[in-house]
């Protein structure tokens, strides 16, 4: 069994390791719920600022090269990595939690830390510039690129060859209540802009129904007359940490009719009926504040039509970027800069 010796490092570098368990928790929570509380990042950012002042005072006292290196790494980390994270969020490339995580890293890890474990020094591979936050970012990007490769291999090993195999996986309809991502199928085939599963949960909670209810009697629920007189709060479509879909209770008018033993409309008659607002999709979107993750009434109707007909559908896993950020942090702390090492092997640096 491998046993590591004691870890030696400067006080500020040791204090920065508190970020590892925090980022691990944030990544786990983002996978489960797609929600990370804002309060997660504030203590780390404050700690980073305090350590930055501490390191700056120490480097200023030494002067010379140490002070210049401190100024350069801090300027790049705070002046490039932090604004770049905000820019990617503003353009829609990152989620809010992802951007805040990267901003926090920009404050907390401006320069490469140094850790001694027995006779070994970590990180092993350092860059010439020495901006550790940029190393974590590039590591995260490389890890994120590996996800589609792993997903394609996963689907190929199970004989699932389809256009969506690079970016999705097959899920049973019963798993969708606690899944995240988008449905990658509609009535015409595969799509990259299908129904968002958070939006689906919002709709179901608004009606006080489950997807199983819709599948049991889709012809009835397509009729907007079955919408509840007093809809339930749709919430934001979140899933709880325990893995159960958040429920606000309540029943729709149609559910009450079924509970009272009323017979549903004959299927042939229902299929021949044309409604102005099938599924009450437009009514739902009109009644909520804001938007349901960019969902349109047409997209909602098409998604519902697909989910009540098919037992298995392709779904994008929607892996949050904070997961590659956490893995990029771990790789950076132990190995160092993956991109710099790759460029060295190619003889480009």
TrEMBL record:
Protein name: Prepilin peptidase
Mode of membrane association: Multi-pass membrane protein
Span list, region Disordered: 215-239
Enzyme class: hydrolase
A GO-annotated cellular component: plasma membrane
InterPro entries: Preflagellin_Peptidase, Preflagellin_peptidase_C, Prepilin_IV_endopep_pep
Domain annotation Prepilin type IV endopeptidase peptidase: ranges: 18-134
Cell membrane as UniProt keyword: yes
Annotated ranges, domain Preflagellin peptidase C-terminal: 298-338
Localisation per UniProt entry: Cell membrane
Gene3D superfamilies: 1.20.120.1220
GO molecular function: aspartic-type endopeptidase activity
């Amino acid at each position: 069994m491998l046993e590591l010796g004691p870890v030696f490092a400067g006080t500020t570098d040791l204090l920065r390791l508190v970020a590892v368990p925090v980022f691990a928790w944030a990544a786990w929570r983002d996978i489960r719920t797609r929600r990370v509380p804002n309060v997660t990042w504030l203590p780390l950012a404050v700690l980073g600022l305090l350590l930055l002042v501490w390191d700056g005072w120490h480097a200023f006292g030494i002067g010379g090269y140490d002070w210049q290196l401190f100024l350069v790494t801090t300027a790049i980390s705070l002046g490039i990595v932090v604004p770049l994270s905000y820019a990617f969020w503003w353009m829609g490339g990152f989620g809010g939690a992802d951007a805040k995580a990267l901003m926090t890293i920009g404050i907390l890890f401006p320069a490469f830390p140094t850790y001694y474990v027995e006779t070994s020094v970590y990180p092993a591979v350092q860059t010439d510039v020495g901006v550790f936050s940029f190393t974590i970012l590039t590591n995260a990007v490389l890890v994120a690129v590996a996800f589609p490769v792993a997903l394609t291999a996963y689907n190929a090993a199970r004989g699932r060859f389809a256009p969506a195999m690079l970016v999705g996986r097959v899920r049973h309809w019963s798993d969708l209540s606690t899944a995240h991502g988008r449905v990658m199928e509609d009535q015409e085939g595969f799509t990259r802009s299908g129904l968002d599963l958070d939006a689906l949960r919002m709709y179901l909670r608004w009606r006080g129904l489950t997807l199983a209810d819709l599948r049991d009697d889709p012809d009835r629920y397509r009729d907007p007359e079955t919408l509840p007189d007093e809809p339930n709060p749709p919430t934001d479509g979140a899933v709880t940490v325990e893995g159960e879909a958040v429920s606000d209770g309540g029943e729709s008018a149609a559910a009450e009719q079924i509970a009272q033993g009323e017979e549903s409309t004959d299927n042939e008659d229902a299929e021949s009926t044309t409604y102005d607002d099938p599924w009450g999709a437009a009514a739902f979107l009109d009644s909520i504040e804001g938007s349901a993750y960019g969902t349109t009434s047409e997209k909602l109707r098409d998604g519902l039509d697909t989910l009540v007909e098919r037992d298995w559908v392709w779904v994008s896993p929607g892996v949050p970027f904070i997961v590659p950020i956490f893995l990029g942090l771990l790789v950076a702390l132990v190995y160092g800069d993956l991109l710099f090492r790759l460029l060295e092997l190619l003889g480009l640096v």
